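Sample intake — CdaR family transcriptional regulator
Collected from: Prauserella endophytica
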Amino acid sequence: MADDLQDIVDNLAERLQRSVAIDDPNIRLLAASRHFGDEDASRVSSVLNRSVAPQLCEQILAQGIAQWTTPGRVIVPLEGTLPRLCIPIRCAGLLLGYLWLIDPDSTLGDRDQDIAREAAERAGVVLYRQLIVHERSRARHEAILRELVATDRAIRSQAVDDLRAEQLFPTTGMYFQVLGMQHQGPDGIAAPQTVAMEAAVEDAQSWMSQRSAAPACALMATNKSRAWLMLAQPQPPSRRELDTICSRLTARFDRLTQDGVQLVLGIGGLAHRVEDIVESYRQAFLAVRAAQLVPSIGPVARWGALGPYQLLLRMPTEDLLAAAQVPALVTLDKEDGHRGLVATLEAFLDNAGDVARTARNLNVHRATLYHRLKRIEQLTGCELSRGDDRLTLHLGLKLRALAAAHRNETTLTLTEDKPARMRSVS
């Protein structure tokens, strides 16, 4: 199919004696002809990088070319970039890409444009066939990925066999890692945030496929408010590589939503066998959960860097809520009032008992801090010089933070659901 598309481009270029390029709907290069001396810096850069800069892409798309059904001229807002004739490539009512001809002097006549339109129609048939094959392959891979993380071991085992039958990568010598993500938008397949997230994941998957040499691959699965990528590579992904993927995902999602909805990402641990990908998947979404409940972690959470939350989030919600009721802290809450004793205790424990640093963080004199710590010991019955007491109080504070986040989340969900339920009754 790719050779057919290249043949269309080359034939058109020879007939018109002009360089020709075909991009996908996101202005990523699919095929380009040789140059005839009419190229500019943007065309050369596009051929070399297989895409244009995101800002330039937005400026081009802002001219409304995605709605065009006939050829039109595009003035690219970049110094040294020549005007172009853009012919939208469509088939079966779908926009599948754009055919570009550089035309600075508007010398492409009606006959030339008719020839270019015919080439665009043939390209549309080729791209439509590719789309069908791609969608079938994607649906199969997504179904396998879902079964890879199923609770039933037999289903997971069959999914491993199915994935190996696809021969996407060698059966040995590979590293696997899951990148999970979730948005906080309204739940629903047609929600704009869901569409934006799927587009962002597709963009990251495409980028991984283009930059990685075989046998590396990236497979994706999406489901309403969450999605995940499974990375399979001969070498473990570097920190820089993972940061780049996360940045691309977030930037693409933000550009498509622009409504303040945040995309939260979690990076699971490495798995050395595809059979163990389920553990990386669980870790990735526990990291997502940590980022949602504990804002200080940030929008990108990494398994292995979550501190105590890595252990606490494995607890069932009911057990976590019960464990958060630490008697010493309940007593301290009752007696605290507005004296800031709980905040003082948390700062002291977070700073590993460093009095000088804690006093600086709280902006109080050391004598004031010592007085507060003594009062905390009196009220809780704990000795802050004892390791077990410190551990009990510190874990209790972290549990309380998670429990409070759970309760706030539940309250928000009930509040948001209430109008919908009232409407359904009426």
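Post-analysis note: The mean pLDDT is 86.
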